[in-house]
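User: Here's a protein and a ligand (magnesium ion). What would the complex look like?
Assistant: Let me lay out the input and then the predicted complex.
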Amino acid sequence: MTQVLEPATEEALAEVAPAGVEETDAAVARAKAAFPAWRAVQPGDRAALLRRLADAIDGARERLATLEARNVGKPISDARGEMGMVVDSFRYYAGAPERPTGDTIPVAGGVAMTFREPLGVVGLIVPWNFPLTIASWKLAPALAAGNTVVLKPAELTPLTALEFERIALEAGIPEGVVNVVVGAGRVVGQRLVEHPDVAKIAFTGSTEVGRGIAEGAAATIKRVTLELGGKSANVVFADADLEQAAASAPMAVFANAGQDCCARSRILVERSAVDRFMDALEEAVEALRVGDPLEEETEMGPLISAAQREKVASYVGEDAPVAIRGSAPDGKGYWFPPTVLCPVSNDDRAAREEIFGPVASVIPFRDEAEAIRVANDTIYGLSGSIWTRDGARALRVARAIESGVLSVNSNTSVRVATPFGGFKQSGYGRELGPHALDHYTEVKSVYYATGS
Ligand code: NAP
Ligand code: MG
């Protein structure tokens, strides 16, 4: 048995039995056996089942939110919001079985038509930062499209996935359609990647592990979608509403204690506005309430683990000066204070690597061209923001930044109805929105000879 820890207290929250290769193979076999019947469920019936599942999750929302808050160390108010998004993901995709689209293409001697067919068994591998939320972005479109799934949560945070498996069964999803296997990435994850009966891997996590998954999947020509790391830019022009930009910048990095692939951890500020921006930022960072994840008022909790804290600490005091340091509780728990480095050069390690902790780098820039160049000078391309009152510039810069998801005068990234995913080494494929369904289906073209 391995202990599942509560990062705010360092106490054990639960014990789980990690699976090995045999259990993984058994889960794949169950999913494979369940596939023919699940794909044959009539569209309206599959939609109704997914709506029932959404309602069941909604009913368990508070319990799931508390479990997620305790296991990840995230503020309970955030966890509640995330469970709302889990429900919304299932509601959004529940209608998909009734809205399949295909083409009819007149060709010589007959007509061709296209179908979107499910893939079969899909392996879902998810990280510890938004455990059930990120799983739901994969589960909902995968199931709606008629696939069966094997979900591997991160070893650090398996509890809401296990709850989900129970809830799905209770809601009437047939046995074998949803299978959760708890265990190490190198064992369970790797086996899913290698398994000849798994048609696709949908992965969220580090770029390093993602690269290994793409390599491993090549052996069986498995379909792969990858949501990887980020080092996103929050570009603040001097003509922006600086108050608003500075007020929202902290949570664009420090939400989920910075353990967010969308974290806008490089704050690019036009030189002439740096002093005014930093004054407002300091006020906002110092006002952040860091503490017990289960307190209603808490805005930032601890990091996931001692190892993560050690990694994050290694970026502070290296190249750039610490300009702002917020508060963090003493004693037990993997706490780290929200920290702003300024001025940072885009060549510093803090600006190049995904820190995955509450450390922001402020990088001054001269003009629009330099802002775009610096924003793009990274191996990543996941999210980002642009703050300006000049609408034409906002669109110009948005088109120029190499990133999958951008916001203008806002620091939010993720919506159920809009595609989410990366450029460059932030991955490939898109989750959420209508595009996700393409990644859980194969296009089939059928030619019907009509004799003329
Ligand atoms: P990770 O190592 O990429 O893990 C993500 C998932 O992949 C986990 O379920 C993990 O399992 C599994 N995994 C690990 N090795 C595997 C392998 N060889 N084959 C198949 N699956 C494997 O990420 P992490 O350890 O959670 O975090 C490390 C760093 O990744 C972070 O510091 C951050 O920079 C980045 N990260 C990015 C995101 C994102 O949303 N883009 C999310 C999380 C982390 P186990 O952990 O159970 O072994
Ligand atoms: Mg890892």
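Summary: The CA atoms of residues 356 and 444 lie 41 Å apart.
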